[in-house]
TrEMBL record:
Bias (Polar residues): 161-174
Gene name linked to the record: RGR1
Organism: Saitozyma podzolica
Official protein name in the record: Mediator of RNA polymerase II transcription subunit 14
UniProt-listed InterPro entries: Med14_N, Mediator_Med14
Upper lineage: Eukaryota, Fungi, Dikarya, Basidiomycota, Agaricomycotina
Region (Disordered): 1-50, 142-174, 352-371, 420-440, 816-863, 1286-1305
Record-annotated Mediator complex subunit MED14 N-terminal domain positions: 202-319
């Protein structure tokens, strides 16, 4: 084909801009070669687009395509050496920083963690580099300088590749070997010698193809731009030539008459109207407006014409708080010649609590007038689109008839139900629907006023909806932040308010898709945000009001319409409120999605407030949920603590909780309650404890309430259980605080395993444990149960652990405590005390008090019912005291049971002499344990000392602290303590020893009652037995003295004092012995004293005058102070106790027996320890004292009369004595031996001992010369009465005992008192005359030895 020449009638197109070489036709845009493709047949196989040469195109070969690809050189890659250097440098730098800065300040425990972190990070970097290196070796082939023949080397040594998971072990090198491409691209400017090899491989080939495609895309975009430019140029060439008529008019007239009037009116002056013309025009216009409204145009029934003046019709619609508009007419004709024109509009509604500048504000006229651009926009829409006349549609015959019949049937059916449902498709009018005008005589007319009414009504409601939306946004960002979600759909005219917003809980992880056979949801679906839960949805919709119209209004409208039917349907629009229940607000019979009655939520046009609507809906919703929530709580007996004041529902005007369940709580200070209700703001259950509003101590209670609310609102627990637990916790807190005020130390846990406590129903949440001071294994327990507070006594027991190692504690015996009984006892004692006081003051009130007993009992019963979760401090303390006393009683009983000792419990009587005088309710509940003496002491001899019954009394139980036990023992024999004037005065000293008081022992001498007090109640029985074992020794002594006093032989024996540790008695007038038992050594200690009245009596016993007895006494010279010969002899007294110094001589003491105290104590212990028959030890010991007294007094008298240190007394034992004289370096001795039976003495020479036993303790003794003569002389003196027996001797015989009797005949008595033995070498005499015999024999010895003359011998 040849190119056509241009048409002369067409405009010549300007030449387009030159195209780039890439888009020249006939060239290959994507190929970067400088070889032109000549038209002609293809050089290779292919198909052309036609026979013309310009449609022919070559089909390039593979080599041509390869040549057209841009080269990719080696220097364009990133060298792996740099990456390796960077990895090494980073590893070295991190290691240096770790060693120099990080590790030194750290301790050895923290250093390994940093070293491990460094090793992990460095290892990851090395592995990444290694992965890149292996990948590079796998996808690239080393470059070679060979030509295409080098392709045969692929797969050889230089072309080794690594298999990848995608190749399944096959070679992944599918590209030809690398070769040099010369003359293309960057290589074009290079010399053939300096040409660099081009890399070949998957990566390089891909990069080259990518560059090729980018180049192609650029060429396509530039071609498109050139085509667009050509299209614009062609559009400009189509304009017509300049208008010749316009040019001629301008040349001839100088103007252009064909301009539009809109351009010329502004420049043409008009003739102004006169005032009369203006008024006339307005009057005509008013009349025409009235005519049009009455006779021509259809006026909607709801559009009220308020006034017509000044050429305007002032109308209002949509109720008293709807809209107000100003209308006028343009032209005085009908139809197209005269039309309605809107000149102004304002709103009659207002927003609540808004100013005059806001729509519906509370201005003076209560209206809002639009001004400026906003007013003009409304007027333009109304005057241009709404009010212009429109053609009336023609009737549609049978279709219209059928539609009318359908509407009529629906209207009849709706009237029966009370409502009419009309749809736009079924009807075109709100009154008489479209029908045949010929049949009904109705005329269909255009309805511009109907359209204006619908438009202004819709616009007014749209403004109201926007005002509500702005109010909702302010609430959502202010007072109801986080609890209100606002959404508006302006297309559908719907405002949605979602209240009580909550986060939707996370979904539980679903089962795998393979397990259920379903497709597994995508990760995007799982991670997508889920819509929150809402309590309710309030939808404010601008829609047609479907409520039936007033029949009267409709009838008047039909009369006024005079058969006219408008072509437009009048709409009765309004803001409809729909209230739906959300997922978070379901409950109490309400289901999610259920529609609620929104009658109470109607909007007031006189005061639009979204806050009021939301508040009303949330209050109604919260009140309903609260009532449904409180129904099971009101029926539950767990929260009805006070029967006289049960839980109740209380309504309030509070914005927080419209309805509140008020549950009274126990409190000792003021009336408090637990408030439970659903919050109208958040829709959550709120629980408030009035007792935890103030004070730092209530923080724990407030925290517990918050935890309970969180648990209930999250749905983990039930409200009934949580409220019950919360009330129990409050009661427990009150009880624990009350216990702490009493000074106790309550605890919630014991040293037991949780499962052991659970088995015993001793949960820490409902149990309080108070350790009792009497025992570490006993606890006073207070438990909370539905019936109230229960108390019990708990004992823990030690058992073998399951592992066999050690022991563990388990729950042992449990003893319930009766709180009601304790209350009755307390009130009974108070009532009894009052009655006693009333009887004392006025006996006539007794009958009156008895008559009031019935109401009092009833009030007590009511109090018990009302206070089952409250305990008076007195009752609580009484229970604690009783438990403590009961534990003490149990411990005592257990000790008796362990020893198989039977016992009985004796409670004090309720009235009478033995009734308790204490006002405590526990008085009379603590018994006394009575035990048989023989069973307790396990000794038959105890019956002879104590009464048959021993009583164990619990003391100090009323103090509430550690109790102690007093064991009461009454002695059978009352010690015969001497009275004043009848016996010598007792020894000075306290009535009871300090040691006895320190051991808790008390003795009442008047009643012979011994009380043993044990502070350690756990060892009261063994402690008593130990104390009794010690004290029985002294008690036996006192009893023995009292028993001997009753015999004729020991009538002068008197008990002076007895304090359970020491028995003091007078064994002879003026001579006192004190026997003390020492528990440490389990032995007796005897001490002696002598009173002042004993001087004369002792002189008579010794056989001297009282005057001589009153002379100053001379101390005996000890053996260590005698002559050297005597000292060298080494005299050592025999029979000395450890307390005496060997060889010491007796010094004059206050009592002559004091020098024998150690020996006599030893003798007494021997007598008691030999197990003699009852009473023999005491009698023998007292006889020993009486027998040795005359001898010691005589020696004391001899020593007092001597002018030298001799004779010296050596005590060999309690029944052996020796008098020593040293003369001319010789020692002479006179032995006095008390014979068995304690009735006679044997006097002999010390050098010739009786029985042949020589005592070397006094050294070598010399025989007394002429000793037989001395014996003979003394014996004859006794027989012939050379030794006179005076009246004093008779007293000695009677009082001193010694077995002698009062003599009646001197001759007969002399034969009995003395006798010669051992062929005259010794003399035996009775105890009664030993003093006289000793004095005579001592004088005879001194006479034979020539010591002191014969003064004493005479």
């Amino acid at each position: 084909m040849t190119a056509r020449p241009p048409d002369p009638g067409q405009a010549v197109l300007p030449p387009p801009p030159p195209l780039p070489a890439e888009v020249v036709p006939g060239s290959a845009p994507a190929l970067a070669t400088d070889k032109p493709l000549a038209p002609g047949p293809a050089s290779g196989p292919g198909v052309g687009l036609g026979p013309e040469p310009w449609f022919a195109f070559p089909i390039p070969s593979d080599a041509d395509i390869e040549d057209e690809l841009p080269p990719y050189f080696e220097e364009e890659n990133v060298p792996l050496g740099q990456m390796l250097d960077r990895v090494v440098r980073k590893g070295y730098g991190d290691m240096r920083h770790l060693v120099t800065e990080v590790l030194p300040p750290l301790n050895p425990r923290q250093k390994p963690r940093h070293v491990i972190d460094y090793a992990k990070s460095t290892r990851q970097n090395v592995l990444k580099y290694l992965a890149i290196l292996r990948w590079k070796a796998a996808v690239d082939t080393p470059a070679s300088a060979a030509g295409p023949s080098g392709a045969s080397q692929v797969g050889g040594a230089n072309g080794a590749s690594f298999p990848t998971p995608q190749t399944n072990g096959e070679s992944n090198d599918t590209s030809p070997a690398a070769y040099v491409i010369a003359g293309k691209g960057k290589a074009k400017a290079m010399d053939s010698e300096d040409s660099k090899p081009v890399l070949r491989g998957k990566v390089t080939d891909t990069k080259r193809i990518q560059q090729f495609m980018e180049h192609q895309n650029r060429q396509h975009e530039e071609a498109i731009m050139h085509v667009k430019h050509a299209a614009k140029v062609v559009e400009g060439l189509r304009l017509r030539n300049p208008d010749l008529l316009t040019a001629l008019s301008l040349l001839n007239l100088g103007t252009y008459p064909r301009l539009p009037s809109s351009l010329t009116e502004a420049f043409l002056p008009r003739t102004p109207l006169t005032n009369a013309a203006i008024l006339d025009t307005l009057r005509r216009l008013n009349a025409h407006i009235l005519y049009r409204l009455r006779c021509v145009d259809y006026l909607p029934p709801d559009l009220v014409v308020r006034e017509i003046k000044d050429g305007r019709a002032y109308v209002s619609g949509a109720g008293p708080y709807g809209f107000r508009a100003e209308l006028s007419l343009v032209g005085f004709g009908e139809g197209d010649e005269g039309r309605w024109w809107l000149t102004g509009v304002e709103w009659g509604w207002k927003s609540k609590e808004k100013g005059t500048d806001d729509p519906g504000g509370s201005g003076g006229a209560n209206t809002k007038k639009f001004e400026g651009d906003e007013r003009q926009q409304i007027l333009d829409v109304a005057n241009i689109e709404i009010l212009p006349p429109r053609s009336v549609p023609e009737d549609r015959g049978d279709e219209i008839k059928g539609g009318a019949a359908l509407v009529a049937r629906r209207a009849v059916a709706g009237s029966r139900r009370g409502s009419v449902v009309l749809t736009p498709a079924e009807t075109s009018s709100s009154r008489a629907r479209t029908a045949e005008p010929e049949e009904h005589g109705q005329l269909k007319v255009d309805g511009p006023l109907v359209r204006l009414y619908n438009f202004l009504q819709h616009l007014s409601l749209s403004y109201q909806l926007e005002v509500l939306y702005s109010q909702a946004l302010a609430l959502a960002g202010g007072r109801r932040r986080g609890q209100l979600m606002v959404e508006i759909d302006r297309t559908k005219k719907v405002l949605r308010l979602k209240y009580w917003i909550r986060t939707r809980p996370q979904q539980a992880p679903q089962q795998s898709a393979a397990a259920v056979g379903k497709r597994q949801p995508s990760q995007a679906a799982l991670g997508a945000p889920r819509p929150p839960l809402v309590g309710g949805i309030l939808s404010v919709t601008l829609g047609e009001d479907l409520s039936p119209a007033d029949h009267k209004t409709g009838l008047l409208a039909e009369i006024r319409d005079v058969g006219m039917v408008p072509s437009e349907r009048e709409l009765r629009l309004g803001l409809n409120v729909k209230w739906e229940i959300g997922e978070a607000g379901a409950g109490g019979g309400l289901k999610a999605g259920e529609v609620m009655d929104s009658t109470a939520l109607r909007l007031d046009p006189n005061g639009l407030s979204i806050d009021d609507m939301i508040t009303a809906s949330t209050r109604i919703h919260a009140a309903h949920l609260t009532r449904s929530l409180a129904a099971p709580l009101l029926a539950s007996p767990r929260i009805a603590i006070f029967p006289s004041s049960p839980p109740s529902l209380v309504e309030s005007d509070s914005s927080a909780r419209p309805v509140t369940l008020q549950v009274p709580l126990p409190s000792r200070t003021k009336s408090v309650s637990l408030l439970v209700g659903v919050s109208a703001r958040a829709g959550l259950i709120e629980i408030e404890d009035e007792g935890a509003r103030e004070g730092a101590a209530s923080e724990e209670r407030r925290m517990r309430v918050r935890m309970t609310m969180a648990s209930v609102n999250e749905g983990r627990t039930r409200i009934a259980d949580d409220v019950g637990r919360l009330m129990i916790a409050i009661v427990m807190d009150n009880l624990e605080s009350q216990m702490r005020q009493l000074g106790w130390q309550p605890t919630r846990r014991l040293a037991l395993r949780s499962q052991d406590l659970a088995k015993a129903d001793l949960h820490p949440a409902t149990s309080i444990f108070i350790p009792l001071p009497s025992s570490s294994l006993h606890y006073f327990v207070a438990k909370i149960n539905p019936q109230g507070i229960a108390f019990e006594l708990l004992k823990l027991a030690r058992v073998q652990a399951e592992s066999g190692i050690g022991t563990k504690l388990v729950v042992g015996d449990r003893t319930p405590m009766d709180l009601g009984k304790m209350r009755e006892r307390r009130k009974g004692r108070v009532t009894k005390r009052r009655r006693v006081e009333e009887d004392r003051s006025d006996p006539s009130k007794t009958e009156k008090s008895q008559n009031q007993a019935g109401p009092a009992a009833h009030s007590q019963a009511v109090e018990r019912l009302e206070s089952r979760f409250e305990v008076d401090s007195r009752d609580l303390r009484n229970l604690y005291i009783f438990c403590n006393a009961l534990v003490s009683q149990t411990i005592i009983e257990q000790q008796l049971k362990d020893r198989a000792i039977p016992y009985t419990l004796q409670y004090p009587p309720a009235s009478g002499p033995g009734a308790p005088k204490s006002g405590s309710a526990v008085a009379g509940m603590v018994p006394t344990l009575a035990v048989n003496t023989i069973d307790l002491l396990k000794d038959p001899r105890a019956a002879d000392v104590a009464m048959p019954r021993v009583y164990m009394q619990i003391q100090d139980w009323w103090k509430g602290g550690k109790c102690h036990v007093v064991t009461v023992v009454q002695l059978r024999h009352r010690p015969s303590v001497s009275e004043a004037g009848t016996s010598p005065a007792p020894a000075p000293g306290p009535r009871q020893s300090t040691a006895a008081r320190a051991e808790g022992i008390d003795f009442d001498q008047a009643s012979s009652v011994v009380k043993f007090s044990a502070t350690d109640i756990s060892r009261c029985v063994p402690a008593f037995l130990e104390q009794w074992e010690r004290l029985s020794k002294v008690i036996v002594v006192a009893g023995e003295v009292s028993r001997l006093n009753k015999s004729d032989q020991f009538k002068d024996l008197r008990m002076l004092s007895f304090d359970l540790r020491t028995a003091t008695f007078s064994y002879s007038p003026g001579f006192i012995a004190s026997i003390t038992y020492t528990p440490t050594s389990d032995s007796y200690l005897v001490t002696f004293t002598r009173t002042g009245s004993a001087s004369g009596h002792s002189a008579m016993i010794a056989g001297v005058s009282p005057a001589a007895a009153l002379t100053p006494r001379v101390a005996l010279t000890p053996v260590t102070q005698m002559t050297p010969v005597a000292h060298m002899s080494g005299l050592t007294p025999a029979g000395m106790t450890p307390g005496m110094t060997p060889g010491s001589l007796v010094q004059t003491q206050e009592s002559p027996h004091e020098v024998l105290a150690g020996l006599l104590s030893h003798r007494l212990n021997e007598l008691v320890g030999t197990g003699r028959r009852k009473g023999t030890a005491g009698k023998e010991f007292i006889l020993l004292l009486r027998s040795t007294l005359p001898l010691l007094l005589a020696i004391e008298s001899i020593r007092a009369a001597s002018t030298t240190d001799f004779p010296a007394l050596v005590i060999r034992s309690v029944n052996q004595y020796r008098l020593i004289w040293d003369l001319d370096e010789k020692r002479y001795a006179l032995d006095m031996t008390l014979l068995p039976g304690n009735e006679s003495y044997l006097l002999s020479d010390g050098s010739e001992p009786v029985g042949g036993h020589v005592d070397p303790s006094c050294g070598a003794l010399t025989r007394i010369p002429k000793f037989e003569g001395v014996v003979q002389s003394v014996w004859e003196g006794v027989r012939r009465d050379h030794i006179p027996l005076s009246e004093e001797n008779e007293d000695i015989d009677a009082g001193g005992g010694g077995g002698g009797k009062k003599r009646k005949e001197k001759g007969k008595e002399a034969k009995v008192l003395a006798i010669k033995l051992d062929e005259g070498r010794s003399l035996g005499c009775e105890v009664g005359v030993v003093g006289s015999v000793l004095k005579a024999m001592s004088a005879g010895v001194e006479g034979v030895l020539g010591i002191g003359g014969n003064a004493r011998a005479t």
